Amino acid sequence: MNRRVIGLISTIILGVSLSLSFFFLFLLWEDSEYSTDFPFKINGGTLLEYNHVSGEAFIWNQGFNLTFSSITIERNQTLNISIFNIQTENLSIYGLLDQEKYSIHNSTFLSLKIISIPQQKREIVLKNEIQGEIFKIAAIGDTQGFYYQFKSLTRQLNCYSYSFLVHLGDITSFGTVPQFNEVQRITRNSTAPVFFTPGNHDIKSENSCMQYQTFFGESNYCFKFGNFLFISLDSSTGSLTSSTMDFLFKTFSTYYTQPKVIFTHIPLFDPRASKDHDFLNDSQSDLLLKIFAQNNVRIVLSGHIHIYNYTIRENIHFITSGGGGAALHESKELGGFHHYLEITFNNNHLNWSVKPIEFERRASPLDIEVIKDQSVNIISVSDLQLEFDIIYGQSSFQNQYDNWRSYGEYRGVLISDLLETVGGMTPNHVLEIETWDGLIQNFSYPVIFPNNSWKIIQGDVILAYAYNETFVPEWIDGYRIVFLAPDGAYSNDDCQITSPLGEGFHIWPSAGYRWMKYVKFLRILER
For a designed S-S bond to 217, which of 46, 57, 176, 390 qualifies (C-beta 3.0 to 4.6 A apart)? Predict the structure, then answer.
């Protein structure tokens, strides 16, 4: 598939606020005092931001050993370094001078105060000294936009003595800065470090890839804990890129004999009959299976498929765990239930148990807000059924992997009819649609009011409130934007043809991108 991606626009100004009991970090992009030219090398973590004027630095930790080397700060300058996502219990710090200080604020957050020593090379090492041969971790995947559920689960997991948590990707619904920020804010309430690997929902473009790294560090990394080596592999594109393969070979050559745990988003193999949620390249899957078997990989954890499944190949345990909150893909009997994994490591052995979780499913908001200038019309589901012409139709969409999704009968009202309630839309306007989980997308006039040639391709655009006779709020995807393509299939080619420049397919090459769910706001804006 031709994966043409034009980067999302992200001009972001965020603020920094910090206290000993609670902290809230936003990344500052437009302040010229902030840069990524940190005055020493970092091994085991990622620089979030550095203010060269105040000497403040913010670092996201990605393991249990963090090293600062080649310090080059100026004479009489002081560095104040805040380190997040680090296990502070049993932590030793080497290389500090007598006059330098560190402060532990909670179980995953500390700060250092470093002073300059002219013409002296220094190294500061933070090391978790006591790990033990027996320990437990938790693994969860595919929380997506259900942040209140992720927050609730994090609180539950805080009640147990897990050494750390692993998130198997799709931590957001669409990889935007506000969504990444919300996940990071929730993560800071965890009493144990949380290590992420990116999913296809998190990495939508080169820009979102950079945004992910700015919040959570490198997507390919490894760390040792106990007798095991844990390796994150970025499979967000449906395969491993050449740089990821290079990282993997280098890691395997360095830690040849050590037992290994791989955690990645997309599984090598889909265990279901449909087999459309695994690697795009079967040859690479087969190659990786052989490589894993030759390099003492014990277990491979993945998400992407919203089920629990366990299988064994080449004496390697493959576990799919995508039950972190997103809509489930199968019945309960076939593994479709919300859950997380508890994995126990005992010397060189491991075992796991599945922990079902009951979420209080929060329904989509029952009111839609249509806005133009100072006019706001709040429309309920009963208003939609009683006050507008009801449109019925069957349709489906193609996703970025060329798979077809969500075929069925939809019931709703024309978007154009909704806009008339606040004065209507002209070619000089753009319609901005926002969902309750933070996705914002623009729709130009020709999309909402298609001419005959476009209408033959895309059909009417409706706000659907029912799918196969399941109505909002029981239909948890609703309200949803639906393209009622005349042939019942809104393809990626259809989306490309009917996407004005700068929106739709030109932002993310998938017809499913246009089918926004959880719709909350319709705003008519001047161009």
Answer: 46
- CATH number of the domain residue 341 falls in: 3.60.21.10
DSSP 28: B
pLDDT tens digits along 373-418:
989 999 999 999 999 999 999 999 998 888 899 999 999 999 999 9
Give 486-509 pLDDT, tens digit per residue: 999 999 999 999 999 999 999 889
Distance (Å, rounded) from C-alpha 500 to C-alpha 484?
Answer: 18
Kind plus residue range of the DSSP H or E element containing 215: helix 206-216
Among residues 298, 324, 356, the one where a domain terminates is 356
- Residue-number span of the structural domain to which 243 is assigned: 134-356
Residue 185 lies in a domain: yes
Three-state SS annotation for 230-248: EEEECCCCCCCCHHHHHHH
Q: pLDDT (tens digit, 9 = 90+) per residue, 441-457?
A: 999 999 999 999 999 99
CB atoms within 10 A of CB 311: 12
Tokens coding 30: 């437009």
Alpha-carbon span 172 to 262, nearest angstrom: 21
- In this structure, are 222 and 339 located in the same domain? yes
Q: How many residues does the chain have?
A: 527
- The predicted model gives 170-187 an average pLDDT of 88
Let me know if 114 is exposed, middle or buried by CB neighbors in 10 A (0-12, 13-18, 19+).
buried
Same domain, 142 and 123: no
3-state DSSP assignment of residue 2: coil
Say how many C-beta atoms besides its own lie within 10 A of residue 402's C-beta. 12
| DSSP code, position 505 | G
DSSP state of 332: G
| Cβ within 8 Å of residue 420, ≥6 positions away | none
Together in a domain, 56 and 90: yes
